[in-house]
Amino acid sequence: MRINAACIIICLLLSGTAAYAQDKPHADQLYEQGKFEEAAVVCKQELQEDPQRLSAFIYLGWSLLRLHKPSEALEWTNKALAFAPNDERLIHITAEALYSLGRYDEALVKCRQYVRFGGGKLALIYYYMGMIYLSRKEYVNADIALSTAVYHYANDANWWERLGFARENAKEPKAALEAYNEALKRNPNLQEALKGKERVSQNQSNP
User: What's the rounded Cα separation, in Å, for the pair 116 and 104?
Assistant: First the structure.
């Protein structure tokens, strides 16, 4: 009887542990559900248990970016880069955080590094590069970067409008008009695209 009782106690303990493990939320699931605060908490708990758990760093970085906390995202991601310097996901998080902080020179370095790795979020990275070049008034480079961005992802009207603006300032009116029209196909009420198209059309009719 004593042996049976002991077995029952052990089984109850094991079943309780298994149930807890099943009920414990996963950071990736929370992130996909848009529960970024909860995902960040879970990631930090996981990192207390395993300070080099790469997946926890990645989902933590992504969650913090969605929560508009780029400084904190950068702080955590730098810790992970110390032991995984070539992980493309960490490089992307770093690039986006630096871009959000307005640290454009550093962001551009990370964007170029990401491009060399050929990661899965090239469209967004090229968009960041294009916006950085626009801020520097390097319109030809902005045209190249934004053209590549819309090649990889063509559905964002704002990206097309920015491409039109880059081409307009690079003195490529025909190409600028094409980009503005693409923006208006996706959002007919986009004011910046409407204004850009009007400017280019007027300049072409009044050389």
Answer: 18
